[in-house]
Write a structure and sequence with these properties.
about 950 residues, alpha/beta, ten-stranded mixed β-sheet, seven-stranded mixed beta barrel, 32 helices, about 35% helix, about 20% strand, globular
């Protein structure tokens, strides 16, 4: 008896594409298993294609001991019936069902068998991937990552609700054969896509379930939702009814939501690629099939898309598809109710969906993107291109019926700056939209060169005279079948008609109208063939390989792998340039922090030092009177190699050796709550070479600035810094905060610093700065999800507060559109000290910014919903709840309550906040920059190294 029986069907009704090749691939994957005690059970329908039968027989003849053919009863026509026949014939201890074309990974059966034998589970499931596009690339469903994050055993399926909420068990799982027969598990023979129902039924029937984090099955085909909408909905309903019958209404609701997002929303997204006739047919079928309520907690655009699909509104679904791919674009008229809520559509009696959360109501005409629906594209009189369209107006903003309108149709060369404009002959207001009509003589006026400008994108530029000449620029949206293939126009390229002879309108992959230069006549086609041959025959191929090799060699010279040894071996031998200083703040991302404070103090004192600042990626905002070099450029490495001083707050690249004649001033970027350096678990788990590299990087420091004995006991100890390297001066960046505190106490808070006016802050509203800590690890900048719902903050406190959001410089966060003056993104502002000076209340979690802000003696609220988990994972130097300078909120409701009662908490935490500032900012007395400059750059500074001048090294000889 085999350990594994893999059932594969062939020839059933509704069988997937591929035929004999797909069957062969599935069976071959079973034969290629590292677990030899696995058999392929091929169940053939009586009406199977002859090619499928031949392939099955050849496979069985090749491996008769591992491939069994089962000829199903003539009455068994559906895939479900064939699979049941396979279950009846299976002889293995475990049985697994594969759809035709699906392939097992090499060790799939072994992994499933081992998990089943170890856990004694009746159902063992793993991950699977599906074909994502026509190229054959595969992708796993996004929700699988959490479900199969680790291998585990479940007592029942409700311990992992995603098994039945999602279509997790359509493939990639096996059943203990004895358990399947004991529970009478069968596929519904009258149901297409019966695998959607079979998996949840099996999970609900058996006892113990094992989850394997390994990938089991690849090659699953994405269902044709436009064709199989009714069967998919029916299978989903049966699963939902099964959950309801088992007393799990909450899982049924989650299942409804998941089905909408996994099947209905992708169906809507596919609408621009469907022909018009099929769009109407699918919309009509959806209206008949989707009779239940739309899940209320879907995101706004998805809720609108599913609602329009359920109503059978094909044009509305097309607009929703465009909106789903471009959430910032207004694709339908908007209606604003008396309560301020915004709904999709212009019928207040029957709104489509509430889309207030998208924030369209806060943008004005000219600021927002509007959908411009192309309604006609044809050949007009005189061989001109005739275009007609309709621009959506949002309803709350835009030109009125009496406002004068002018419009221009523009074609712009893709990837270039050339553009050709055509006047729009008709443009008029039409209720909730603007109708326009234009004729473009592209044959005469569109003169492409013919080499690199063969594609031209179209857009409409509308100017409303009644709105002070506000312009609205929009691309022309159209479904893929909008442009007929017969619409062509003669072309006259500047290089002659051998470069191309015909302009063809087409719809891009982004669903926008464009023109492309093609060769349709014999001279141009012949020229293109000759060019194609000339660029592909052997000498041309060799030339291409040579150019590619040269480019690769140049790329190598520009790579860090080449620059590091060149710097360490040769550049560090260069003579030092007396008085040269390289400044860097947060790895070149900003001009701020303590390096900026030291630089400005040096300028104030008039010291004769030559400053160089590194930047990455943009020099915008850096001082004009300093030399600027891009981080990791050759000029950057040259500056580092010849600098007498290095000054930064984060760390110059670890792999770069500091020249012996250079003094490295490390100002650091904040006191520590979370464990740092060699105290980090991540660092302790590294191998010896990695830890040694960190130690070598830290050993480069000649001076390390501290602001309290807490820094000495934490940062200095964590980085193994000796006492003689510590400068107890405080942080130079905090001098500005001390000065602002003294000014506020003497003169009052108003007027605020100039930055408040630049950001548009109202003096009558409190300013709240939300600055969460960095939660990632080493690597490039990444997007992060803010734990604070800024939209809800704007709704609750927008009238009295302005929220400034500053993401960590190694992260970025996308903010929702909120009412003007309620939420401002200040993540790209260079100097955080300037932001703290205009802030009334700080909201943070574990960021070192709380230590600096406490110096201002202003309220601090710590929003730490994952405090225990974060402290356990990262480690901490003290109990935050005991020593916090303000209330610690574990939930958003607690945070909002603390902000609402800020006066009470401010009074309650005043003494604790002052004690916090005294303990962690002992040496911050307002003169840190002056003291640090005197200690490092002053005439009596002790550097511990002999500085060699260019003359000493014999420069110029």
């Amino acid at each position: 008896m085999s350990d594994f029986s893999c059932v594969i069907t062939g020839g059933g009704d509704g069988e997937g594409p591929g035929g004999a090749d797909a069957l062969r691939a599935s069976v071959e994957s079973v034969l290629g298993q590292s677990m030899r005690a696995s058999e392929a059970l091929v169940v053939l329908a009586s009406a199977a294609d002859p090619a499928v039968r031949t392939a099955a027989r050849n496979l069985a003849a090749r491996a008769p001991e591992r491939v069994r053919l089962v000829h199903a009863d003539p009455a068994a026509r559906t895939t479900g019936a064939l699979r049941n026949a396979g279950l009846d014939e299976a002889g293995g201890r475990y049985v697994l069902v594969l759809a035709t074309g699906e392939r097992l990974q090499q060790h799939a059966c072994r992994n499933l068998w081992q998990a089943g034998e170890t856990s004694r589970a009746d159902l063992i499931a793993g991950r699977w991937s599906r074909i994502a596009d026509e190229s054959g690339k595969e992708r796993e469903p996004s929700w699988q990552g959490e479900l199969f994050a680790r291998s585990r055993t479940l007592a029942r399926f409700t311990d992992a609700p995603e098994l039945v909420v999602r279509d997790a068990l359509v493939t990639g799982f096996c059943l203990r054969r004895e358990a399947a027969r004991r529970h009478g598990l069968r596929y519904e023979e009258d149901l297409a896509h019966g695998e959607i129902l079979f998996g949840p039924l099996a999970a609900a029937s058996v006892g113990r379930i094992a989850l394997v984090r390994r990938l089991i099955v690849t090659g699953r085909a994405v269902p044709d939702r436009a064709r199989d909408l009714a069967p998919l909905v029916e299978a989903h309903r049966r699963v939902a009814n099964t959950l309801l019958a088992r007393g799990l209404p909450e899982l049924r609701e989650e299942r409804e939501k998941a089905f909408a997002r996994d099947h209905l929303v992708p169906l809507v997204r596919s609408f621009p690629r469907l022909p018009a006739v099929r769009r109407d047919r699918v919309a009509a079928a959806a209206a008949r099939t989707l009779t239940g309520p739309v899940p209320p907690d879907l995101p706004p655009l998805e809720r609108a898309a599913v609602t329009l699909l359920a109503r059978g509104d094909a044009e509305g679904v097309l607009a929703a598809a465009y909106a789903l791919s471009r959430p910032a674009t207004v694709c339908a008229p908007l209606t604003t109710g008396a309560d301020g809520r915004v709904t999709w559509g212009d019928d207040p009696e029957e709104p489509v969906a509430d889309i207030t959360g998208l924030g369209h109501q806060y943008r004005r005409f000219g600021e927002m993107r509007l959908m411009n629906r192309l309604t006609r594209c044809s050949a007009g009189e005189g061989g001109r291109l005739l275009l007609e369209g309709r621009l959506v107006l949002p309803g709350h903003s835009g030109p009125g019926p009496g406002d004068p309108l002018t419009a221009t149709l523009e074609f712009r060369a893709r990837g270039g700056t050339r553009a050709v404009a055509f006047p729009v002959e008709e443009v008029r207001h039409d209720g909730n939209g603007i109708i326009w009509r234009a004729r473009a003589d592209v044959s005469r006026r569109l003169r492409a060169v013919g080499v690199r400008d063969t594609a031209w994108d179209a857009r409409l530029i509308l100017e409303a005279g009644g709105l002070d000449g506000v312009r609205c620029v929009s691309d022309l949206f159209a479904p893929q079948d909008q442009v007929a293939g017969a619409v062509r126009f003669a072309a006259r390229p500047r290089l002659g008609r051998l470069a191309g002879d015909t302009w063809e309108p087409y719809i891009t992959l982004k669903d926008h109208l464009a023109l492309r230069l093609t060769a349709r006549r014999r001279p141009a086609r012949t020229t293109h063939r000759l060019i194609r041959y000339a660029t592909r025959f052997r000498p041309a191929r060799k030339a291409k390989l040579l150019v590619r090799a040269l480019r690769k060699r140049l790329d190598r010279y520009r790579s860090r792998g080449f620059k590091v040894p060149a710097y360490n071996t040769w550049l560090t031998r260069l003579p030092v340039r007396r008085g040269s200083v390289v400044f860097e703040s947060h790895m070149g991302t900003c001009y701020g922090d303590s390096p900026r404070a030291l630089y400005e103090e040096i300028r104030r004192q008039g010291l004769k030092l030559h400053a160089t600042w590194s930047y990455d990626p943009s020099p915008a905002g850096f001082p004009d009177d300093a030399r600027l070099v891009r981080r990791w450029s050759w000029r950057y490495l040259w500056a580092l190699a010849r600098a007498e001083y290095w000054v930064d707050n984060q760390g110059f690249p670890q792999h770069l050796r500091k020249p012996d004649r250079t003094t490295y001033v490390q100002t650091w970027h904040g006191s520590a709550y979370k464990r740092m350096g060699f105290d980090e678990t991540r660092v302790r788990l590294q191998n010896a070479p990695q830890r040694e590299r960190l130690q070598q990087a830290v050993d480069r420091f000649d001076h390390f600035l501290v602001r309290s004995e807490h820094d000495v006991n934490t940062l200095a100890r964590a980085y193994r810094l000796p006492e003689e390297k510590l400068l107890r001066t405080g942080y130079p960046r905090n001098d500005a905060l001390i000065a602002e505190r003294d000014r506020s106490e003497a003169e009052g808070r108003l007027p605020r610093p100039p930055l408040a006016g630049a950001l548009g802050l109202d003096d009558h509203k409190k300013t709240v700065l939300y600055a969460p800590t960095f939660r990632g690890g080493p690597g490039k900048q990444r997007k992060s999800r803010l734990l604070l719902d800024v939209r809800e903050f704007a709704e609750r406190f927008g009238d009295t507060h302005t929220l400034l959001v500053r993401a960590h410089y190694l992260e970025s966060a996308r903010l929702p559109v909120c009412p003007p003056g309620t939420v401002v993104d200040v993540s790209r502002h260079h100097d955080v000290s300037e932001l703290l000076a205009i802030t009334d209340v700080l909201v943070t979690d574990y960021s070192s910014i709380m230590f600096d802000f406490a110096l201002l003696d202003r309220p601090v609220v710590l929003f730490a919903p994952d405090l225990e988990a974060y402290a356990a994972e990262r480690g901490s130097y003290f109990d935050l709840r005991e020593q916090a300078p303000g209330p610690v909120a574990a939930t958003q409701d607690e945070l909002f309550a603390a902000l609402a009662e800020l006066k009470k908490s401010d009074t309650r935490y005043a003494d604790q906040r002052r004690s916090f500032a005294e303990r962690f900012g002992t040496y911050d007395q307002g003169d840190a920059a002056r003291a640090a400059v005197a200690a490092v750059f002053g005439p009596t500074a002790s550097r511990g190294v002999r500085h060699t001048t260019d003359h000493d090294r014999g420069a110029g000889r």
